[in-house]
Amino acid sequence: MIIQDGLRRMFAERENCFYYITTMNENYLHPELPAGAEQGIVRGIYRLESGPQRPHRVQLLGAGAILNEVRAAARILAEEFDVGADVWSVTSVGELARDGRATERWNRLHPGQAPRLSYLASQLEGCPGPVVLATDYVKALGEQLRGQIAADFQVLGTDGFGRSDTRERLRDFFEVGRNHVAYAALHGLHRQGAVDAKRLQHAAGKLGIDPDKAEPLHA
Hints:
Layout: H1 2-12, H2 38-43, E1 45-49, E2 56-63, H3 67-81, E3 83-90, H4 93-109, H5 119-124, E4 131-135, H6 139-143, E5 153-156, H7 167-174, H8 178-191, H9 197-207
Parallel strand pairs: 2-3, 2-4, 4-5
Antiparallel strand pairs: 1-3
Helix pairs in contact: 3-8, 8-9
């Protein structure tokens, strides 16, 4: 979809722009394309899965190969903690950030007109609960989107020195794996008053989250 859009703009329409594709060396079965997701894929985000109905709800965003961990976190939340989670595939943090800056600029220069919503804000509009974004990149990448998200927002990323180990242990070390995504979502609900501290502490133990573990950036 992205390649087709790039060919159309660069070759058919002769637009002065460039596209790049990031490839990964992680093997996994790609999910089927949801109906109507074409525009979202090109613009940077689309909803991959709608979670089950539960008393509380969260929005989980995954950028890149970490998406599989985000999907697993959604299952953990539903099965272990009675929390419904919508899963969003972020195909381009950069595209969402550029659109957000352009929207902010337009609103600043047109104070007499109804403010516009960025594409990201329009997609999350009406979606309840805190938002968690997980990436295999540094947190600064995802932090570019903070100004577009009105809800409680947490970014998980791989700040710190790399470790040569399995992907599972790497992601646990950097606190971006499925258990950390699930815990961050529960912590977001806690900050909203929906989950009390005792339940959150119990969840941390169940998920194997060590509160005294050294921060990856300084480990």
